[in-house]
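Write out this protein's structure.
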Amino acid sequence: MRLKPRAKPTPLLSLYVTTGPVPRFASRMTERIGCGKMPEQLPFDGFDTLALERERIRVERNGPGTHCNACGQFVKVYHRQIHSSIAVALIVLFKMNRTAEWVHTTNISKVNDVCINGRCEIPKALYWGLIEECPVDVKELENGSNRVGLYRITEKGKDFVLNKSTVPKYAYIFNDTILGFSEETVGIKDCLKNKFNYHELMES
């Protein structure tokens, strides 16, 4: 009797490649891969196991980055740091908080004739706990504005601005989640470098 050769194992997720919505079971599995995104369809030919893909992403996201084979999302761990523009914006927020509890990022736009994009720079300081966002239960302020884009400096942020403390130089960010921080630390003068004079900023 001649035995038939065994069929080649089918890649796990290739069983769920469809032209319609992804089955709920497949969705739960791919969410475990670690890319943080789940598409309406699975635009790939399949791969050996979820464990292998998860491990590949975990390793390759720490370098130049990679694309998830399940959803196509670009996956990378970003090394964020407090550059000079963020440091200047923190000083401006610190000074404005003396007269206003919450400050809108659009009001952090200029210091010593230097333009600052507060809307982009200030929120990044959240990674280090140097600022806090206006809570949800604060519906409106005296000027009638809503809470979106409103921040104030924290006690930790005040110490940093006053050059009394340091923070980790890098925050490791993946999918808007903090994975950790570097051991190397910096003070606000380190962040300003030679682009701005700390004493002039504090006295202006």
